[in-house]
Amino acid sequence: MTDAPSSPPAEPRLTVLIGCDTFAPDVNGAATFSRNLAAGLVRRGHEVHVMAPAQRGRVGTFTEVHEGAPMTVHRIYSWRWLPHPWLRFMLPWRVKANAERIVRDVQPDAIHFQSHIVVGRGLATAAKRHGIRLVGTNHTMPENILQHVEILPKGTLDWLARVQWRAARKWFEMADSITTPTRRAAEFFERGTGLTGVHAISCGIDTSFYTADFAPRSENVIAFLGRLDEEKFIHEAIETLPLLADLDPKLVIIGGGEVRGRLEARARELGVTDRVRFTGRVSDEELRRELTEASVFAMPSRAELQSIATMEALASGLPVVAADAMALPHLVHPGENGYLYQPGDIEEFAGHLRTVLTAEPAELERLKRGALHTVVAHDIQRTLATFEALYRGEQIVDPDTESTSEPSAG
């Protein structure tokens, strides 16, 4: 996949403090990126501290091992957001004092906050007070967060979204560097906040963890990976199954979340319960096996600022059929590694899945090699090197992850 080294860089070791409003064991894009970033930096020889919400009252400073890398995690007293089954948040009126305490104790070379909603407010203030280089990464759109406040009318939600964008500007403009995972996400953020100069840096994945299998499949297995949330529109993948009945398709839904019951009900309504398998949360090894053994990957989400799950599928050599929305077109190049469908158009969605599932062996191999080619640019070693440069205050050129050139044969 890539020859990028994982050994420590030649420059002096850094002490980096990463601030997260969501972190492992949470399963979502921001938490996964933060975990991978922290673990990758540790493996490259840096000292890493993470400030994150406490889980189930486990407050304090601990050595935690994530992705095989030990790091210091400062778990801050948090409350669960009651409308949501797992989301926890640090108390805004206490986060500044905690951030100041941690910054004084750690004395980091750089601070990198992953959210302005709570943790970024405390860390941005402390970074400016102590003259520490500050990097901010945006993983969210206010509109997505507010979907969890369904009791409020739409007009109020729209107003709250504007308030959140103004808040994002207030805290992100304090950063020395601002990043998002893709150029489209950067443009969206710049429009929402009025800020400019936002860097597009892929979240990255360790492509060596994933295995592509070019052997013929005995079943037509469609895979989805991600949180079972409203914003993922997973029901659209279920609704393709009756249109593909002649192919005897199976849909495996990898992950857990609050809408599982509704998805199961939709499968019953359509009479496809026997064709849908919910795995719940699985180990990394099981996840990678499910992807390796699948035939095609489906991503119907409308709100992906990058989609680590889609990158994992590509790294597993899977053609992808995805919604033509937000950042997914950055990863899915029609006719090269998969296809895009108009969100909500179930017939088009099913048609593209059929194209992959019935492709001749040579065509399927071309799509699978296209998937592997696309993800090379997203190898995490490239991402880590770019963030190291930002932490040191160096000028960077955003990595090119948009190439759609065909991979060479073989």
TrEMBL record:
<dbReference type="GO" id="GO:0016757">
    <property type="term" value="F:glycosyltransferase activity"/>
</dbReference>
<feature type="domain" description="Glycosyl transferase family 1">
    <location>
        <begin position="217"/>
        <end position="368"/>
    </location>
</feature>
<dbReference type="InterPro" id="IPR001296">
    <property type="entry name" value="Glyco_trans_1"/>
</dbReference>
<dbReference type="Pfam" id="PF13439">
    <property type="entry name" value="Glyco_transf_4"/>
</dbReference>
<dbReference type="InterPro" id="IPR050194">
    <property type="entry name" value="Glycosyltransferase_grp1"/>
</dbReference>
<keyword id="KW-0808">Transferase</keyword>
<dbReference type="Pfam" id="PF00534">
    <property type="entry name" value="Glycos_transf_1"/>
</dbReference>
<keyword id="KW-0328">Glycosyltransferase</keyword>
<dbReference type="InterPro" id="IPR028098">
    <property type="entry name" value="Glyco_trans_4-like_N"/>
</dbReference>
<protein>
    <recommendedName>
        <fullName>D-inositol 3-phosphate glycosyltransferase</fullName>
    </recommendedName>
</protein>
<feature type="domain" description="Glycosyltransferase subfamily 4-like N-terminal">
    <location>
        <begin position="27"/>
        <end position="208"/>
    </location>
</feature>
